[in-house]
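Study this fold:
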Amino acid sequence: SRAEPAPPPTPAPERRGRFVAPRQQADLPVIARAGSGQGVSLGLAKSLRGIRLFFGKISAGFKTLLPRLLPTLQEDEAPRTGSAMLLAAIAVPLVVVTAAVIVYTQFGKPSQYEDNFSKALTAAEGAVGQSDPALLRHAWESTLDFLDKAEQYGSTPESEALRQQAQAGLDGLDGIVRLDFRPAIYGGLGQSVKVTRMAAAGNNLYLLDSSSGSILRAFLTSQGYETDPTFDCGPGTYGGQPVGALIDLAAMPGGNVQDASIVAMDASGTLLYCAPGMDPLAYPLAAPSLGWETITGFTLSADGKALFALDSKAVWIYGYDDEQKTFIDPIAFFGEQVPQNMSQAIDLAANGSDLFLLFSDGHVTVCTFSGLVESKTTCLDPATFVDTRAGHQSGPSITDAVFSQLAFDAPYNTSLYLLEPNTHAVYKISPHPTSLELGGQFHASVKTEKETFQNTPASALAIGTDRTLFLCIGNQVYFAAMP
């Protein structure tokens, strides 16, 4: 038999932070037992009597059967052949095993289910009226553990209802909102495609395929998103300007001079503007005065008038020039306060004069730019995450997450969203002048997580202007509406 769950922990002292409940979460219903303890005892007694009678009949049958299978030799009979004795040796254990299986199926499985389901009910009762987050979590986790054991022998409407209740309890503790994710790309993506970045623009979804260094386009149809085989946006020579493998992309605001839907960048700093039915336009960025180290990405301001290029040692700001139709005059974003370990910065997002840098260990640095001599650029390095979940501590990182990408909800830019690839979670963050406050997290349903996402990490995140959330997992993109 499996080991019982660990005993409940000692009530923990109250920690800083407040409880964040999922949206539209109803009060947990009162848990009621399916029957009394006396009923269970009577049922068990009947089962045991049935088992004894069953084996008694088998024993009586064997007394009649065995002499026929293994008859004694008479004085005038020759010894039995080896094949006959072998048949008897096989037949007797076979009858015994068959009988044991019948008994287990009729009596063992139901009793195993009832025993574990009863323990799940008892664990769930421990959550009713409980205010200590550690004890509450233990109660719901124990409930799910016993339900897992019970449902090895079959599930019932009662076990499914209790599972939903326990999962809702845990989601409430973690501030999780479950979204209805569905496959976006009709037919999926090719096996060779490796999506590392995405951008949404209207009814179009653009995907950076790192295996080819090209941008793919998918457009919305009545059957979902369909890939456009005619879309051209990748390495090549355009107007005499060579373009290498693309490393990042961003959606262009409407009404831009190039009439482009998307802009991408290669590792040398050359920009490539693309749109459906348009020949790509290439414009090289002027190298900064100190030269490039290694360009790893870029982002645009909300109005598309500023470009922030991420180098392994710095961030450079370019302003857009309408006459030259490109970004010019790079300025060093940082003054004397350059964030530590810039080579570990993996993503960036801009909101007004604020720049948010994500590092490989999951921490975020927030810097406010100042072009004035008398007022220098300042940074929170690292910024403090205010974890509002009960029982969690605030600090330079979220203890149960290591993020890989971040993005604002353009065009509003009121919240910052961070992707946790291994749990397929998207954390919602509210930026404040001195901190980053956790406002909850979005997950798929438990069934989708287990059966569809499985253990494949999410590789890219995008947010549409209509608050559609896109996640790329393996060779498919999934989308869901955010509240």
